[in-house]
Design brief:
about 425 residues, alpha/beta, Molybdenum Cofactor Biosythetic Enzyme, Chain A, Molybdopterin biosynthesis moea protein, domain 2, Molybdopterin biosynthesis moeA protein, domain 3, 4 domains, 6-stranded mixed sheet, about 20% helix, elongated, binds adenosine monophosphate, binds magnesium ion
C-alpha cells in the first residue's frame, strides 16, 4: 500500500481503528506529520538553557590547552627515578595554576607543581606530594612512587581537540552543555527559535481563578497545568483563556490561535456528545481526526492541522490533560523544537507494593509513589483513587505506573513498569 499522504487517509488505514487507537500507534502517526522548526537565532550562552542547538559547536581550542598536573606534587623526568631505591632531585622552581614555571626541567631536576599547573618543559611525570619528602635543596622521591611515564599528567586536548564537534545540532542545552561551551570561550550560540504554543480551555462551566463560582461551575485548572508543562519545555505561550461551548466563539478562537502559533492545545470538548460540533468546526478550519485511545485516563483525543498549526484537542478531565500531554504532546513538541533522538520517557521496573485491579484491553497510566524498598531496589504503590478528575493524585505522585494493554489485575510483589515524573537534568 502507498504511504498515506493525509492525516485522515493515514488514520483510516486498515490497521488504525479510530474507536480503539493504541497509544503507540497514535504516537507514531502523529510523529509522521511533525516538521521541526528551522529558523535560527543567535543567543548569549546565559539564555540558552533548555533550548535546542541549531548548529554544531566546533571547538576553536584544545581543552586543556596545555599538558598539566592532575595532582599537587613534583614534576620530574621518569627516566631519573631509580628502580631499586629512593631518588634525590634538585628543586629548580615552582609551577602554580595560572603561574607556570618558565624554565625547563633537566636531568636530576624537579619542579614543585600544583593541580592544574602547566607541566614544565622536560618533565613528563608527576609524583604526588604524599610520596615525596623535602630535603635541603630538593626532594626525595620514594621508591615506586610512580610506576609509569606520564603518570598524574593530563594531556593537552584530552577533553576536547581543536576542530572537534563538541555539542551537536539538535542537542538540548543542559547545565553540562552550558559549562562545556563556556570551557571553549564561546559566549553566543545558534539556537532554533522557540515554539509558539497557544492554549485555551473550553466549557460553559469553567471560571477563571479570581472570579466567583456559580452553582455547578468549576475553576479552570487545565490552563495552569498546561502553562506549567509548557513552561518547563521552554515554549513561548499564548494563553487564550476560557472559551464557552459557543460555536462562533470557538471558531474565532481556533482561527486566531492557529494564525499566531505553531501549536494549538485545547482541553475539553472532545468527548462523545461534545465532539460533534467541535468536529464540524474543525472540519471547516483544517484537517483533524478524533480518536478514542485505548488508554486510561485520556480516552478521547483529537489531533490534526489547522492551517499551518498542529492541533491537540485534549480531554477536559484534569488528570487526562496531564497524561495525554506527557504521552503525546510532550514528544511532539520536542520533535518540533528540533531536538534529535526524541524518545518517550523511559520505563523501568519496580516491585508493586499493593495489588492493582485492571481490565485488559487498554494501557493505564496510574499515579504512583515510588520509594526505596527495604529489600533493595524500588517499590511502588498507587496514590489511591484513580478517577480522572482527581488532580491531587498527580500532585501526590512521583511516577506513572504504566500497565500495558494486555495486563489484567496485578498482585503485590509483581514487577511493573514505572515512568518518573521528574528528571535530574
Ligand atoms: P469535557 O471533556 O469537556 O467533557 O470535560 C470533562 C470533565 O472535565 C468535566 O467534569 C469538566 O467540568 C472538567 N473540565 C473540563 N475542562 C476543565 C478545566 N479547564 N479545568 C477543570 N476541569 C475541567
Ligand atoms: Mg466540556
Amino acid at each position: 500500500m502507498n504511504a498515506p499522504k493525509t492525516l485522515r487517509e493515514a488514520s483510516c488505514a486498515d490497521d488504525y481503528d479510530p474507536n480503539s487507537m493504541a497509544v503507540d500507534q497514535a504516537r507514531a502517526l502523529i510523529r509522521r506529520f511533525l516538521i521541526p522548526v528551522t529558523a535560527k537565532e543567535r543567543v548569549h550562552l546565559r539564555f540558552a538553557l533548555n533550548r535546542v542547538l541549531a548548529d554544531d559547536v566546533i571547538s576553536p581550542i584544545c581543552v586543556p590547552g596545555n599538558d598539566n598536573s592532575a595532582m599537587d606534587g613534583w614534576a620530574l623526568r621518569f627516566a631519573d627515578l631509580a628502580a631499586d631505591g629512593d631518588t634525590d632531585l634538585r628543586r629548580v622552581g615552582d609551577s602554580f595554576a595560572g603561574k607556570p614555571h618558565t624554565g625547563a626541567v633537566g636531568p636530576g631536576e624537579t619542579v614543585r607543581i600544583f593541580t592544574g599547573a602547566v607541566m614544565p618543559a622536560g618533565a613528563d611525570t608527576v609524583v604526588m606530594q604524599e610520596r615525596a619528602t623535602e630535603v635541603p635543596g630538593g626532594v626525595r622521591i620514594a621508591r615506586g612512587a610512580v610506576t609509569q611515564r606520564g603518570q598524574n599528567r593530563r594531556l593537552a586536548g584530552e577533553d576536547i581537540k581543536v576542530g572537534q564537534v563538541v555539542v551537536g545540532r539538535g542537542q538540548p542545552i543542559r547545565p553540562a552543555e552550558l559549562g562545556t561551551i563556556a570551557s571553549l570561550g564561546i559566549n553566543e550560540v545558534s539556537l532554533f527559535r522557540r515554539l509558539r504554543v497557544a492554549f485555551f480551555s473550553t466549557g460553559d462551566e469553567l471560571r477563571s481563578i479570581g472570579t466567583p463560582l456559580g452553582a455547578g461551575d468549576v475553576y479552570d485548572s487545565n490552563r495552569y497545568t498546561l502553562y506549567g508543562m509548557l513552561a518547563r519545555l521552554d515554549c513561548e505561550m499564548l494563553d487564550m483563556g476560557v472559551v464557552p461551548d459557543v460555536p462562533e466563539e470557538l471558531e474565532r478562537t481556533f482561527a486566531t490561535a492557529a494564525a499566531n502559533a505553531d501549536v494549538v492545545i485545547t482541553s475539553g470538548g472532545v468527548s462523545v456528545g461534545e465532539a460533534d460540533f467541535v468536529r464540524q468546526l474543525l472540519d471547516k478550519l483544517g484537517e483533524v481526526v478524533f480518536w478514542k485511545i485505548a488508554m486510561k485516563p485520556g480516552r478521547p483525543l483529537a489531533y490534526g492541522k489547522i492551517g499551518g498549526a498542529h492541533f491537540f484537542g485534549l480531554p477536559g478531565n484534569p488528570v487526562s490533560v496531564m497524561v495525554t500531554f506527557y504521552q503525546f504532546v510532550r514528544d511532539a513538541l520536542l520533535v518540533l523544537q528540533g531536538r534529535r533522538d526524541v524518545a518517550p520517557v523511559p520505563l523501568f521496573r519496580a516491585t508493586l507494593a499493593a495489588p492493582i485491579r485492571k481490565a485488559p484491553g487498554r494501557t493505564e497510566f496510574q499515579r504512583g509513589i515510588l520509594s526505596p524498598a527495604a529489600s533493595g531496589g524500588f517499590e511502588v504503590r498507587t496514590t489511591g483513587d484513580q478517577g480522572s478528575g482527581i488532580l491531587s493524585s498527580m500532585s501526590q505522585a512521583n511516577c506513572f505506573v504504566v500497565l500495558g494493554t494486555d495486563t489484567g489485575n496485578v498482585a503485590a510483589g509483581e514487577q511493573v513498569d514505572v515512568q518518573l515524573l521528574e528528571g535530574l537534568v
